[in-house]
Structures are given as structure tokens and as C-alpha cells.
């Protein structure tokens, strides 16, 4: 069975609740699709108004982060229960901006992946190498280490429902998109790794996105690759271009 493509916007720290509502309304006619899953991952404070604004449409909502704790004295954190109750289906875990700026390490991210499943949320687990790592030839070793660590204790049944986003750090927000060959090579290696950790069936089911300066012009070729099941889109998800990316064919 062919995997269904999943095209997700990562709004990052953009859009107030008022602006978020306006963006959803602007995008509504442009992102209609029967063929792909469409997701907006939005700032925590935008979740409630955006869930309301997409009601009755094909768009699903995701959070950009989740606490590794259930509840209690953790000022400023957002729990899985809150995200789920607010209407999210997905949650981004381990984006390179959180790994880098907020020092989230793999042991911590592994706990977050477990929390997502505890609250019936689908993780969009991010991985990716820096420019230095690519130039040193350790890209695949690095990504194997990230994913093997982040997936400790996750079952094959859980993994089969997950989304993995391959985002080379040097391609994020730089306008410097990976070549189709580079993106396919790593996404293929990730699928092989999933087969190695779990089995061929799980590897066949898991969805792997490419992220990093995806645009209306680069999307068609990227998404045509056999191991690229869609994209995690930053900057272009805040513009009308996102409609073109969703309807890339
Ligand atoms: P850009 O599409 O802005 O490069 O961001 C990619 C990204 O980080 C998505 O999570």
C-alpha cells in the first residue's frame, strides 16, 4: 500500500492568535486536498483558535513541543494532556532549533516521544546534520545515533504510525535546499535504519518528510522521490505558497 504523503507547516514562533486566525482563513481555499494529509504545527497559544478555525476542513493541527512530564510544578511547560485536549493530533519533537538553542538532548527527546504516545499524539520526530558534519562525512552516522537514541523503548506498532522529519540544519531558513539526491539518500537510509531497528513492515509504513527551505518550486521533485513522504515546511508555510506545496503535483 502506498504511503499517504503528509505536508506539515511548522510556524515556529510566528503569528499571534489574531494573526493565526487570519492566516488559516487565507490558506483555507488553497490547502484543500483529498490526496495528502495537511498539518499546521503552531505555537501553543495559537492551538485553541486554530483548531476552531480549521473545524470541518481537511487540516489537522500539531503542537511544536511537549513536556516530558505529566503535570505539576513545571512553570512554562505544556503537557501532552493539554495538547491533546486542545485538539492536536501531532507534535513536533526534537527540532534542531530546540536541540541547539534549548539544549534538548536525545535522552530528553526519547522521554518526549514516549509522552506523545502516552497521550495519543503522533510524534513528528526531527533529525538532521550540521554543515560541519556533512562536510566531515558523518551525516548518516549522526542521524543513526539521533534516531536510535530517540526511539529507545518505542514499539514497532508505535513507530509505524510516526513521522520522521529529515532536516539538514544547513538547509533550514537559508534558502539552501538539499539536492533531491541528498534528501532521498538520507530519507532512504532512515527507512533502512527503521527496518534494522524494527522490521521491513514498519519501515514500509513509517512516513519520512524532508524539511529545509521547501518551496513551491522545490516541492514537486522532492516529493516525487521514493522515500520522501512529504515535507516539514517553515517559512513557506506562512504564505499562500503553502497551498502550492500541498498541491504540488
Ligand atoms: P524553512 O522551511 O524555513 O527552511 O524551515 C524548515 C524547518 O525548520 C521546518 O521545521
Helix content: 40-55%
Ligands bound to this protein structure: 1,3-dihydroxyacetonephosphate
Mind telling me which CATH architecture this is? Answer: Alpha-Beta Barrel
Number of domains: 1
Count of alpha and pi helical runs:
12
SSE order in H/E notation?
A: EHEHEHEHHEHHHEHHEHEH
CATH class: Alpha Beta
C-alpha-based Rg, rounded: 17 Å
Strand content: 15-25%
- The side-by-side strand order for the widest beta sheet comes to 1-2-3-4-5-6-7-8
In total, the number of strands is 8
Shape: globular
Provide mean pLDDT, rounded.
97
Explain what this protein looks like in three dimensions:
The protein is globular. The protein is 41% helix and 16% strand. It has one domain: TIM Barrel (Alpha-Beta Barrel), CATH 3.20.20.70. It has 12 helices and 8 strands. It has 249 residues and is of the alpha/beta class. The mean pLDDT is 97. An 8-stranded parallel β-barrel has the order 1-2-3-4-5-6-7-8, surrounded by 4 helices. It has helices at 17-27, 47-53, 80-86, 96-101, 106-118, 131-135, 139-150, 156-161, 180-197, 200-205, 219-223, 241-246, and strands at 6-10, 37-42, 59-63, 90-93, 122-127, 163-166, 207-211, 230-233. It binds 1,3-dihydroxyacetonephosphate (13P). The site of 1,3-dihydroxyacetonephosphate has 14 residues, from strand 8.
Amino acid at each position: 500500500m502506498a504511503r499517504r504523503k503528509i505536508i506539515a507547516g511548522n510556524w515556529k514562533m510566528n503569528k499571534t492568535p489574531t494573526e493565526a486566525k487570519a492566516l488559516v482563513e487565507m490558506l483555507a481555499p488553497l490547502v484543500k486536498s483529498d490526496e495528502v494529509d495537511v498539518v499546521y504545527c503552531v505555537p501553543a497559544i495559537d492551538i485553541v483558535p486554530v483548531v476552531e478555525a480549521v473545524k470541518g476542513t481537511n487540516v489537522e493541527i500539531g503542537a511544536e513541543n511537549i513536556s516530558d512530564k505529566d503535570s505539576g510544578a513545571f512553570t512554562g511547560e505544556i503537557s501532552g494532556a493539554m495538547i491533546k485536549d486542545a485538539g492536536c493530533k501531532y507534535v513536533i519533537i526534537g527540532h534542531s532549533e530546540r536541540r541547539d538553542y534549548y539544549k534538548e538532548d536525545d535522552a530528553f527527546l526519547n522521554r518526549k516521544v514516549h509522552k506523545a504516545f502516552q497521550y495519543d499524539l503522533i510524534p513528528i520526530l526531527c533529525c538532521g546534520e550540521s554543515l560541519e558534519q556533512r562536510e566531515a562525512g558523518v551525516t548518516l552516522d549522526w542521524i543513526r545515533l539521533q534516531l536510535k537514541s530517540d526511539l529507545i523503548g518505542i514499539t514497532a506498532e508505535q513507530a509505524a504510525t510516526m513521522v520522521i522529519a529529515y532536516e539538514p540544519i544547513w538547509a533550514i531558513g537559508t534558502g539552501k535546499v538539499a539536492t533531491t539526491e541528498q534528501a532521498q539518500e538520507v530519507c532512504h537510509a532512515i527507512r533502512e535504519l527503521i527496518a534494522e531497528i524494527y522490521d521491513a513492515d514498519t519501515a514500509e509504513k513509517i512516513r519520512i518528510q524532508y524539511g529545509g527551505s521547501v518551496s513551491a518550486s522545490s516541492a514537486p521533485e522532492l516529493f516525487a522521490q521514493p522515500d520522501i513522504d512529504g515535507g516539514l515546511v517553515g517559512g513557506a508555510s506562512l504564505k499562500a505558497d503553502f497551498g502550492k506545496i500541498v498541491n504540488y503535483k
